DNA sequence: TCTGGGGTCCTAGGACCC
DNA sequence: TCTGGGGTCCTAGGACCC
């Protein structure tokens, strides 16, 4: 029997904890984690939602993703702090360094979660539960924030374990503990049972993870197709994907989207927003070393409805201008002229750009390609605002748009 | 309640070919 | 010819995660 030992490490209220730890370190007296507080986007530019919340805020029924307006109504003296991605990346990296002291096989799952394969290192680091406590305490003492560690024999159970009681805890959820620790939980807490699936399960009289584990597979198949099998396996703790170390997992696509600070209703403005998104997408695409064959555009209306449109290129490209050209075409094909609240550009069907066959006759494109590369280099060195297109001056729009613009260097090194 | 932004994977239906 | 079926590709949308 070669049972694995997998750990899942999850930072408690990540963005908020990191901000709190940073502030304490800077001499501030109040710990944001002890009061109702949230990390929120900028309301002025219509990004005003809750990105992370303290436990006291959670107790006031403030949810991640809800508007700051609504959150303040639940708690008038709510403390709202802005996002600081650069800080998050530093905390993320510092935490990874500690995790790697405990196992060479670490899979980054997100900015605040990672899996660790502990199977082969028990002789070195000892009993997994003891090791998990040491790991957790090292992070707390050295970095100033707390994590939950889940331990089991596969990734799914380890992840479910880390979600049990928070914060600052170590939990095991081995197969023989599923019945008592996982089955009583509401079915919506199971990984992969979200806001659409949960109500369907309720209608089938399935309310807990245990109900799902023991329900009729045929019935699940009938209502949920292959999804039913997947979540029933999960409810029974069945999952066996490997911890993919040096998780340089192949990226499938690159996209950026934005909510525009004001409703856009002219073609000219819409094209500018699109261009600023294409700048970001193109830059990331080139930096990742890919060309894309498929371009997709997403429009979000003022009424929050959205639609998308995509088209495949004959040849793959990483040329900002070409991507923009097609994106604009796609946008114009589906836009009926209604006020737009947001837009997005996504490219996929990526091919490594070192195999790119440049057309010898395409001298102009080659020139533009070199220009893209030069601008990329300057932006990487001096910041994304060091080179901007003049049409954005006084437009009220960002010349380059994407959620991580300010910290582009940091975030891209993470991906 | 006037709801971001980054991803991945799956599915249904239509087009088109044989 | 007015009727089949299988396979593949494409597109839009929906589900989930953080």
Could you characterize what this model shows?
The chain has 415 residues and is of the alpha+beta class. It contains 15 helices and twelve strands. It has helices spanning 14-25, 55-59, 68-74, 85-99, 122-125, 128-143, 155-162, 178-182, 197-203, 209-213, 217-235, 267-288, 320-334, 363-382, 408-414, and strands at residues 6-11, 37-40, 50-53, 79-82, 106-110, 113-117, 147-152, 170-172, 253-264, 290-301, 306-317, 340-352. It has a five-stranded mixed beta sheet. Strands 9-12-10-11 form a four-stranded antiparallel beta sheet. Residues 405-415 have low confidence and may be disordered. The protein binds a DNA duplex (18 and 18 nucleotides) through residues 14, 41, 46-49, 51, 65-67, 69-70, 73, 109-113, 191-197, 225-227, 251-259, 296, 302-304, 306-312, 342, 344, 402-404, 411, 415.
Tags for this entry?
DNA-binding, 21% strand, Alpha-Beta Plaits, DNA polymerase, domain 1, Dna Ligase, domain 1, 415 residues, 15 helices
CATH architecture group name of the largest domain: 2-Layer Sandwich
Low-confidence stretches: 405-415
Radius of gyration: 24 Å
Give the strand order of the largest sheet, numbering strands 1, 2, ... along the chain: 5-6-1-7-8
Please tally the β strands and state the result: 12
Q: What is the beta-strand fraction?
A: 15-25%
CATH class (first level) name of the largest domain? Alpha Beta
The number of domains is 3
Shape: globular
Q: Termini distance? A: 36 Å
Largest sheet: 5 strands, mixed
**Arithmetic mean of pLDDT:** 90
């Amino acid at each position: 029997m070669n049972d694995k030992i997998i750990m899942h490490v999850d930072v408690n209220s990540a963005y908020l904890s990191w901000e709190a730890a940073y502030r304490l370190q800077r001499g501030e007296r109040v710990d944001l984690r002890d009061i109702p507080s949230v990390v929120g986007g900028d309301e002025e530019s219509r990004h005003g939602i809750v990105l992370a919340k303290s436990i006291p805020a959670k107790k006031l029924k403030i949810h991640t993703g809800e508007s700051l307006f609504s959150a303040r109504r639940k708690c008038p003296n709510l403390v709202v702090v802005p996002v600081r991605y650069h800080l998050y990346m530093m905390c993320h990296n510092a935490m990874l360094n500690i995790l790697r002291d405990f196992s060479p096989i670490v899979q980054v799952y997100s900015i605040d979660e990672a899996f660790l394969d502990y199977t082969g290192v028990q002789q070195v680091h000892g009993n997994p539960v003891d090791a998990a406590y040491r790991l957790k305490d090292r992070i707390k003492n050295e970095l100033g924030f707390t994590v939950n560690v889940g331990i089991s024999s596969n990734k799914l159970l380890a992840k479910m374990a880390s979600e049990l009681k928070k914060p600052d805890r170590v939990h095991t959820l081995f197969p023989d503990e599923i019945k008592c620790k996982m089955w009583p939980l509401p079915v919506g807490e199971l990984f992969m049972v979200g806001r659409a699936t949960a109500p369907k399960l309720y209608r089938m009289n399935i309310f807990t993870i245990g109900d799902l584990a023991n329900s009729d597979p045929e019935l699940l198949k009938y209502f949920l197709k292959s999804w039913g099998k997947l979540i029933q396996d999960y409810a029974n703790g069945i999952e066996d994907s490997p911890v993919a170390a040096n998780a340089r997992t192949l990226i499938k696509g690159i996209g950026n989207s934005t909510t525009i600070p004001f409703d856009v209703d002219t073609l000219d403005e819409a094209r500018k927003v699109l261009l600023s998104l294409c700048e970001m997408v193109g830059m990331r695409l080139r930096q990742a070393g890919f060309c894309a064959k498929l371009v997709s555009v997403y429009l979000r209306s003022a009424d929050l409805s959205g639609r998308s449109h995509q088209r495949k290129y004959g040849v793959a490209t990483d040329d900002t201008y070409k991507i923009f050209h097609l994106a604009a075409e796609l946008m114009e094909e589906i836009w009926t002229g209604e006020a737009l609240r947001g837009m997005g550009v996504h490219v996929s069907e990526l091919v490594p750009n070192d195999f790119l066959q440049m057309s010898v006759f395409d001298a102009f494109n080659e020139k533009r390609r070199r220009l893209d590369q030069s601008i990329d280099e300057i932006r990487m060195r001096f910041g994304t605002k060091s080179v901007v297109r003049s049409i954005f001056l006084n437009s009220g729009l960002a010349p380059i748009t994407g959620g991580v613009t300010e910290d582009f260097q940091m975030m891209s090194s993470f991906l």
